[in-house]
């Protein structure tokens, strides 16, 4: 789980809301416009969807173990 987060935020670890990959993921999941994503909107999205995001990260960890 931590490894995926580390790789997904490469180059943007102190400001993950600027990561093109995470912006794309947020946009495709929620429909929010990626180019206008701000710090506040990003963390609001993360907090509001923490259960789904947590399940997704556990799934990523299981898939990494199978690979």
Sum up the structure in keywords.
67 residues, mainly alpha, 67% helix
Description:
The chain has 67 residues and is mostly helical. The chain has four helices and no strands. The chain starts with a helix and ends with a helix.
Gist?
The chain has 67 residues and is an all-alpha fold. It is built from 4 helices and no strands. The protein has helices at residues 2-8, 20-30, 39-48, 50-66.
Shape label: globular
The percentage helix is 55-70%
- How much strand content do the residues show? under 5%
Distance between the termini: 14 Å
How large, in whole angstroms, is the Cα Rg? 12 Å
Task: Extract low-pLDDT stretches.
Answer: none
Element order, helices and strands? Answer: HHHH
Largest sheet, if any? Answer: none
Tell me the structural class: mainly alpha
Number of strands: 0
Number of helices: 4
Task: Estimate the mean pLDDT confidence.
Answer: 90
List the helices and strands and how they pair.
Layout: H1 2-8, H2 20-30, H3 39-48, H4 50-66
């Amino acid at each position: 789980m931590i490894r995926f987060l580390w790789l997904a935020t490469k180059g943007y670890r102190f400001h993950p809301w600027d990561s093109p990959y995470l912006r794309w993921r947020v946009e495709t999941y929620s429909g929010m416009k990626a180019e206008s994503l701000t710090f506040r909107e990003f963390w609001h999205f993360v907090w509001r969807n923490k259960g789904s995001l947590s399940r997704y990260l556990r799934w990523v960890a299981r898939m990494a173990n199978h690979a």
